[in-house]
Amino acid sequence: RELVIIPASHTSLPKKKQYTEPTQMRAAIRPGFFGGNLPSLSTTQAKPIFTPSTNPNDVLVKVKSAAINPVDYKLPKFVAGPIFGLDFSGVVENVGESVTDFAIGDAVFGTTPTGSLADYTVVDTKRIAKFREEDWSFLEAAALPTAYVTSLQGLKVGKVSEGSSVLIIGASGGCGLAAVHLAKAMGADRIIAICSGKNAQLVTEAGATEVVYYNRNETLQAFFDENEGKIQCVYDAATGSGRGEEYTETSMSLLIPDSGEYVQLNGSTSVWVKGLMLKRLAQHQHLIVTDMNTADLEEVLLSLKEINVKPLMNVMPFTEEGIKEGFDLLKSRRTKGKIVFDLS
Predict the structure, then answer these.
(1) DSSP 138-180
(2) pTM of the complete model
(3) Nearest Cα to Cα of residue 74 among 237, 285, 240
(4) Is the dihedral of CA 277, 282, 283, 285 positive or negative?
(5) pLDDT for 284-297, tens place per residue?
(6) Pairing relation of β-strands 87-95 and 107-111?
(7) Residues 299, 152: contact at Cβ < 8 Å?
(8) ∠ at Cα 159 (250, 68), nearest 5°?
């Protein structure tokens, strides 16, 4: 028989589809040098450049969900960069040549200094941890980093342990609810929440054993008068947050003599100068600046699993309208729990 050779150009084998790596992505952008107050959604933001050799300790992450915090709209563009957001969850798409603890395909969460409200981000592995998709959704994981790691570190500074008494001021917000959850996980037996009356059930279900309404002046003052020297840790998520709240002086009077600790997340300019630059805050007064790290992210997951708790979320679409609604809600300071955007 005669062997007939058919040229490759005449075969009917399907051609391989050519894949082009995207060079642009969606991102929530700070407009102008100072950032402004209104983020805009760009669909043509340059995707971050990543190579294993030039980013040896980093990973490239495809972001699935991202959450926002008050600091996101308070910091200008020249400080925080062009893209909004710190908290995120997503899937690792590439790893640096020195990375050994993470692999392509891992589900991760944490914070990124280059902006989380974008389809991709590059982040140092010291700022992230892995999570099991069987245990946590990407939305839930994105709600955890800043609020829960800040609360974990703050309560540790406050020396909270089994049987402790903890007062949480601003208990219904993202950091406040995180502190209620973690105080419960740490074994505190008296968890007092200061919030509005309409959020009393919310914080009680989260683990508070007592609720004090901040908008009932006589009740609030009576609480402070009756609890002088009785509280191990005051975790203050309200002072300096934007509407003139000031609990520092009265909070210090509540501390157990010689061992109680007052932990605040914010304060006046003078408090920041004394706390960060001069290191001269009053004895037992602490200003918390979050140190994001893998070990604490992992501890948060274990603590919440122990008490079978998930974060409270307000989920928004990653659209122009969704971004506006999310930031308006954040600025209202009346949100319950965390605001999380779905980028999937």
Answers:
(1) HHHHHTSHHHHHHHHHHHHHTT--TT-EEEEESTTBHHHHHHH
(2) 0.90
(3) 240
(4) negative
(5) 999 999 999 999 99
(6) antiparallel
(7) yes
(8) 75
